[in-house]
Amino acid sequence: MKRAEFVIIGAGPAGLRAAKSLLDAGAKVLIIDRSDLLGGQLTKQTHMFFGSEKQHASKRGIDILKLMVDAIIEHENLEIITNATVVGLYKDFVIGYVKADVYYKIQADSIILATGASEKAIPFENNDLPGVYAAGAVQTLMNVYGVKPGEKVLMVGSGNIGLIVAYQLMQAGVEVVKLIEAASHIGGYLVHASKIKRLGVDICTNMSVKRALGKDHVEAVEIWKLDAQWKGIEGTEETLEVDTICMAVGLAPLTELLQQLGAEVKYVRELGGNVPVINQQFKTSIDGVYACGDVAGIEEASSAMMAGEIAGIEAALSRGYDVENAANRLNELREDLSNLRNGPHGEKIRAGLAKLGVL
Ligand SMILES: Cc1cc2nc3c(=O)[nH]c(=O)nc-3n(C[C@H](O)[C@H](O)[C@H](O)COP(=O)(O)OP(=O)(O)OC[C@H]3O[C@@H](n4cnc5c(N)ncnc54)[C@H](O)[C@@H]3O)c2cc1C
Q1: 121-247 under CATH 3.30.565.10, yes or no
Q2: How far, in Å, are 34, 120, 277, 285, 328 from residue 274 at the CA level?
Q3: What is the homologous superfamily of the domain 2-118+251-356 according to CATH?
Q4: How far is the CA of 317 from the centre of ligand 1 (A)?
Q5: Residue ranges of the alpha helices (H) in 262-325?
Q6: Is ligand 1 within 6 A of the CB of residue 294?
Q7: Consecutive sets of 10 residues in the chain, 359 residues long: mean pLDDT of each?
Q8: Considering the entire predicted model, what is its pTM?
């Protein structure tokens, strides 16, 4: 069986930054990603990023991605396998992946899991009609493939993802008929909300989808007001003519591979669902296995980059590599990460990490 010292699963910002730390330390690295493109979520993010200035905030996601890829791509110690989905993590760190319908196995000494997250959906009648999308899928269609998902959209969810994707839909010439939010307040940054409000989009809180209407595809949607328990209130229904319903209702960490390996996971609502129990070094309950980025709790690309760098340095140190200035760099990264989580928008993350015992 083929062997590799460090295998990174997932080439988003967390995985790419972990790879850079390991390569800088002199290690050999194999990255496996199921996509044909490197960069994870960044491949479709054409907007200027929020987050940490030190982690390229104010640059476009796709430009940040280029900087990260350019920093490692020519490295002689780097091997990358794309279009390859890891389907199993087994005893003795055997990794099973499928590429072009062929199943391969490789054994690693150390694994860094950076698989990111999957999109959540909400249940409503007809939510399987063509025309019902998750926001990440809409972003991929528009920003990677140049395809509009429809002409008239209802956006569901007012977190930053819902607000940003609503704006991008309008930039693409799609009408955003309304944006609804189940909570009593807008979840994302007000700067994003104000931008779409100025363009005439009505943002309604305490509302959700009752059902989608249409025979072969979405032709309209019925929305209704919610009570304090988030139950729909009969008699408050409103019908909107739309051909697309876009759900931006949260992300769930992709921890299944870690669970298969037997790593301890815990359900922490504030971090998006089941997350691995990790320590300050981003090490899971299994020695030699690290988890960083959205897979360890839904945050943002800035934190994913910092977490990836910490995990990469710690993994290198644990196998005896000499990392230049390691203690100072780790302190600096931990301080930056904590500063990033310090604002009001970090409150949820802090609560989640406290439940995990990481803070
Ligand atoms: C619309 C939107 C806007 C955003 N805007 C911002 C912003 O402005 N600022 C900011 O800081 N953050 C932003 N974020 C959040 C940011 O994109 C994510 O937090 C970040 O990408 C997480 O990085 P990651 O490396 O953990 O995971 P991802 O970027 O999701 O990368 C995970 C990678 O793992 C691969 N993978 C998953 N499973 C497997 C498997 N089984 N086998 C092989 N490969 C696998 C995937 O293909 C992917 O490449 C935004 C997110 C969205 C959706």
Answers
A1: no
A2: 21, 13, 9, 14, 32
A3: FAD/NAD(P)-binding domain (3.50.50.60)
A4: 26
A5: 301-318
A6: yes
A7: 96 98 98 97 88 80 96 98 98 97 98 98 97 96 95 97 96 97 94 96 98 97 97 98 98 97 96 96 97 96 96 98 96 94 87 88
A8: 0.94
